[in-house]
Design goal:
Elements (H helix, E strand, L loop, with lengths): L1 H27 L4 H38 L8 H39 L2 H7 L4 H38 L5 H6 L1 H4 L2 H27 L4 H39 L2
Helix pairs in contact: 1-5, 1-8, 2-3, 2-5, 3-5, 3-8, 3-9, 5-8, 8-9
Length: 258
Amino acid sequence: MLTVINAIVWDIGGGIFFLKEVSSSFFKKKISIERIAEQIWKVTTQSISTTALAGFFVGAISTIQFTMQVKEFGALGYLGGLATSGTIREVGPLLIAFMLSGKVGAFTSAELGTMKVTEQIDAIRCLGANPIQEIILPRFIGIIISSFFLLAAGLLMSVAGGLIMGMLFAHINPEEYLRHIPTIVTISSVVSGLFKCFVFALVLASICTYKGYSTTGGAKGVGKSVVNTAVSTMVGIVVADWFTSLIGETVMSLYMGY
């Protein structure tokens, strides 16, 4: 037990120092916009189909669950607003981020881990360049930007999935489903969902780049890094979800005066 705790603390400490080095490199030298754009394009094209599919079914599932509840109270007309609000505020960002952690996180960790064990990163350092600046930072920024917009696109797809399932499962008119969305889904709900998307993207980028960059032990080590990335990212996203929810509720309490 003590060994596990020690490993976790060591890992967290290493991640903090890694992020410190990444953030300091951000201001040292001009960042290549072309490399960042390349990473954004790569991540987006690889993950857009997975994100859209995940978002669609997340919205559909939420609609099915809410249908069972609102039918008992004769409030089926509010199905669109309730399902969309629940998806945007909580369920959608969390589940879609899980999908991205397996797609983007594992791929990036494997890519960087392979570069590390084959000494490509050491070769960059021997040539007088900073591997953090040249290799890590473009991926770090690209993953954050791309993942944020992928998560937002997934949330939009969740509305489409909820609408279609509302028509097929609840037999509700599409106009009625959409009519109550603006009355229940407030600006604070949208801001909360987008804020969670940004935080989850930051967690994903931080963990997958750190795990890949710190890989050791050859091909076996790359495999271990990929597995650790998937597990650590999911745990990190859950913790970040709790933290952002706590912040959101605290801000709303102060705003509403209770």
